[in-house]
Automatic annotation (TrEMBL):
Protein name per Swiss-Prot or TrEMBL: AB hydrolase-1 domain-containing protein
SUPFAM superfamilies per UniProt: alpha/beta-Hydrolases
Occurrences of domain AB hydrolase-1 (ranges): 117-362
Protein family according to the UniProt entry: Belongs to the AB hydrolase superfamily. AB hydrolase 4 family.
Membrane-spanning residues: 12-30
UniProt-annotated stretches for the region Disordered: 409-429
BP GO annotations: medium-chain fatty acid biosynthetic process; medium-chain fatty acid catabolic process
Keyword Membrane: yes
Annotated InterPro entries: AB_hydrolase_1, AB_hydrolase_4_sf, AB_hydrolase_fold, ABHD4
Encoding gene (name): 6054297
Domain of life: Eukaryota
Active site: 197 (charge relay system), 327 (charge relay system), 356 (charge relay system)
Length: 429
């Protein structure tokens, strides 16, 4: 018998090898890749509302069969969306800021009622309104009749940089001005907000730092693929070799952004632009330019201010977050699962796979309606239209629960010691 088995293995037909490999990979895919996402939030009204009204949360996430690796999800998502998402014809509004600068607000209102709800969208590190992931969300919102406005940071979106100031993850002044402007021109509609990657940091910091103001303006918010702990995210993206290649690409994008503006080259500034333009990593760029540009002592002080994982207890706007456990920009152990499990207003959806702003699904992910867009549209459809005021009542109960507990300490449980927070070791990824 052993002789026959040895003879078979040494003369194995190629199609047998292929079949064995395919069966093995299929087993791995079904057992290790396809999983139902974790929902980290306290056992309370927000969790019950999400479970009842957002059906995608109860379904398994089926990543694209041939593209399950995190860096592959990240890269191919960008490539595929770029090829299937045509440029969008926005209505551009140039908003003058109080300090003399300007930002571009790109509106998509076609096929929507003039009084329909709207969502303010913040792109990532060097993204703008024609970025493929932004078009994915804008299109998803438009299909359900929600208007959108994309907030292009200073120096992006094709606008001239009028003052020697750009943007950073910790500074929310520009966003606060934009939100006030949008509210002033849309006083009688419900407003939501979404931030992607670094845009999620800016939005999250606004929600935490302007907690009372934000809850009076915004009905609901969402952040996607946010680097919760900026220090750990920076360390992760510098890991060799594939992660560091993504990091170098983004550092190059940052350098190309600042290279365009002679207004940033004045000798009176603390930075040496020639050295800045040689940056090979995001942290090096932030050390040589961003931290100095915004008056921080060093890059560590900047990252400490920008980080979001320890601020969940300050947020009072219902916030749904989407993160992937394999995001190369943010390791799983940096996602604030325990803090979310004690939070009345912050819920984190964690998929086993998805990369950074990836979340590709299906055999061939050429469908515009991808996982990220479906979660986005389901959440905002139920929170912003809210025809029976069920979400409004839920929000009121959420606030009542929040007021019953002290929020001065990040680790203070929302529902007392009887709550059952999710432990990291219980996450099946």
């Amino acid at each position: 018998m052993f002789v026959d088995l040895y003879a078979y293995l040494t003369n194995l037909p190629r199609w047998h090898i292929f079949a064995i490999f395919l069966v093995g990979y299929l087993f791995y895919y079904l057992m290790e890749v396809v999983k139902r996402p974790i929902l980290a939030v306290s056992d309370g009204p927000f969790k019950r509302y999400l479970r009842k009204h957002i059906p995608i949360l109860g379904m398994k996430f089926w990543p694209t069969f041939w593209c399950v690796e995190s860096r592959a999800q990240t890269v191919f998502a960008s490539i595929i969306r770029s090829n299937i998402m045509p440029n969008i014809e926005y209505r551009r509004e140039v908003l003058a800021m109080k300090d003399g600068g300007q930002v571009a607000l790109d509106w998509l209102e076609s096929n929507c009622d003039p009084e329909s709800p709207l969502i303010i969208i913040l792109p990532g590190l060097t993204g703008e309104s024609q970025a493929e992931y932004i078009k994915c969300l804008v299109t998803a919102a438009n299909r359900i009749g929600i208007r959108t406005v994309v907030f292009n940071n200073r120096g992006l979106g094709g606008l001239e940089l009028k003052t020697p100031r750009l943007y950073c993850a910790s500074n929310t002044d520009d966003l606060a001005e934009v939100i006030h402007h949008v509210k002033k021109t849309n006083q009688h509609v419900k407003i939501g907000a979404t931030g992607i990657s670094m845009g999620g940091l800016i939005l999250g910091n606004y929600l935490a730092n302007y907690s009372e103001e934000s809850k009076s303006i915004l009905t609901a918010a969402q952040i996607i693929s946010v680097p919760w702990d900026v220090n750990k995210g920076s360390d992760s993206i510098e890991q060799p070799y594939l992660n560091s290649m993504l990091g170098r690409h983004l550092a190059g994008s940052l350098c190309r952004t600042v290279r365009k503006y002679d207004i940033l080259r004045d000798k009176k500034f603390d930075w040496d632009m020639d050295r800045v333009l040689q940056s090979k990593t995001i942290k090096e760029f932030d050390s040589l330019f961003t931290s100095k540009h915004f008056g921080y002592k060093n890059v560590d002080a900047y990252y400490a201010q920008a980080t979001l994982h320890n601020k969940l207890h300050k947020i009072k706007v219902p916030l749904l977050c989407l993160s992937a456990a394999d995001d190369p920009f943010q390791p799983l152990d940096a996602i604030p699962v325990k803090a979310a499990a004690k939070s009345s207003h912050v819920a984190i959806v964690i998929t086993a796979r998805g990369g950074h702003i990836g979340f590709l699904e299906g055999w061939w992910p050429a469908n515009k309606d991808q996982y990220m867009g479906r979660l986005f549209s389901q959440f905002f459809e139920k929170t912003l239209f809210d025809e029976k005021s069920e979400f409004y009542r839920t929000s009121q109960v959420m606030m009542e629960h929040n007021l019953q507990t002290s929020t001065s300490v990040p680790n203070t449980p929302v529902y007392g010691s009887s709550s059952s927070p999710i432990r990291k070791k219980s996450i099946p990824f």
